[in-house]
Automatic annotation (TrEMBL):
Pfam families: Ank (PF00023), Ank_2 (PF12796)
Keyword Nucleotide-binding: no
Entry keyword Oxidoreductase: no
Keywords tagged on the record: ANK repeat, Repeat
ANK repeats (start-end): 36-68, 69-101, 102-134
UniProt name for this protein: Ankyrin repeat domain-containing protein
Amino acid sequence: MTNTIQPIINAARTGDVDALQNLITADTNLNATDEKGYTPLIIACYSNRLEAARYLMQAGADPNAADFGGNTALMGACFKGYPEIATLLIENGADLNRQHGNGGTALMFAAMFGRNTMIELLLKHGADITLLDNRGMSVFDLAAQQGNEDGIAILENYQPA
């Protein structure tokens, strides 16, 4: 971790856009990570700091950067259930079908944690319902495992455009 990334991570966590503006310079690596592999954007998104996330992406943060487990900002937003953050990430090129270290996707996170609005959002933008995780589990399997009947219904009724 560089000396400058921790204050940026802290500002991202609290959503302090003014601090971000003061801390980020032309040579700041916005994809640098803390000791857990989190980038400022991942932290801002996981903390539901929409304006901080927007500023970080405008400043050059990679929406597809991943932590040490392969989790992206979009996966975190889907786990937590933040549709505005997810929309921002998708509009800025977040990979809907990226798989983390165990093969999970943002759609799988949404299905497992009952974030059905997120399922609808991801499907609307073209998330792949056929991907399997490393155990061979599909998004349907994961939703069923968690008892997410409404999520299963959304997935079953999905009609690709």
